[in-house]
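Data card: per-record layout.
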Amino acid sequence: MMKRHLPWLTPLLLASAAHASPPDAASEPAAAAPAPAAPTYAPVKQEELYRAGLQAVAEGRLEDAAVLLERFIEQEPRHAGAFLELAITYCELGNAAEAERLFKTVEERFDPPPGITEVIASHRAAGCKVRTIRPASWLVSAGRGRDSNVNQGASDSNFTIGTGSNQTDLELSPEFLPKADSYSVLTGSYVRPMNSYGTLGIVQGYVRRNDHIHEQDTATLLMGVEHSMNIGRWRTRATAAFGAAELDKKLYQRQEQLQLRASPPMSMPPGWDFAFAGNISHVTYPTRTAYNATTLELSTLFTYRGKHDQVQITGSGLHDHGAEERPGGDRKGWFGSVQWYTLLGSGWYAEAGLTHQHWQSDNIYSPGLIEVARRQNTTSARAAVQWYFRPNVSLHLEGRVVRDRENISLFQYNSHALQLSMRWDNF
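The structure for this 427-residue chain is written out next.
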């Protein structure tokens, strides 16, 4: 079918970061009003309901979208875009009679421009057939890169253990110092709607093979289910995921994760969205059980979506409960990030991000040897540019810098990497 992002609807297509599911049933759209000189738009306080309807359309939750758009039209009977979206939604639900009634309403009440009349004509010509589940989406990427510190080797070769008269100065052997290497990487993701009510199945994979330092070769697999719903007037999204990681062709880590993200019913400036998120994850290390841990995370997220730009700001509080024998015991910390995405021109995109994570251990790391509680500060910066030189095929160039600063020099490290990839998506 044709794209929904129509020229005269563009000012209202502010995609919400959260998701919605059906509220109570709505009444029929209001009776016809005198034709306005031009399509009118809703006040900001009603914009949330309209955005939720558009988000439901984008996610393939057509039954939800119909209810939300009907409720919006009940309050804003002169909103041309909502009438057209509702008509197309009914057409895709197979309700030809209601779709035709709404198409006629758009034509008679709003005097649409030629582009919109063509959209209506195309739906009439194709017929109204049931479309309950949107298509699956996928992405595959293959690339080459260079990393200055593949093994996260210590930035300082000298360190001290013990205290007082037992203090000893040591020098790390070369195997614990930074090692540079080139690598090949292959990634893939697949997202498939499981029903028409906002449930998605997700599979992601990642394989990295170094040219020489094969003990640092990695592979990961993640499988998850995500469901969008309403809890009262809160728009929510729940996710459950399981992941496994391999290091040097041996199982290194398993992880289970549950997350709930919720957007409260509050007015925001145009283009902005606000949400809370709660996350709990459990990590198991089959060969290093002392490092097993459960992490709790509470976050706030601000998202801005403009015509060419998107910005996401995240702040999180962290608590990490480790196994009894883990050095340093439990940890508390915080995480912050700013991510920016922009359209540079036809087929050209750019993105940049800055993150910082802080951890503070509760106990001394190793009594008698390392007599301090570990304090870790890790900052990561990245920038990338993407060029679609063919439909659904692009080149992606990314640079990344990591600086890890700790009060235990043994664990400090620096790294920078540059990677060029080719991506194929949805074809």
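Known properties of this structure: Residues 7-126 form a domain with the Serine Threonine Protein Phosphatase 5, Tetratricopeptide repeat fold (CATH 1.25.40.10). The radius of gyration is 26 Å.

See the next section for split statistics.
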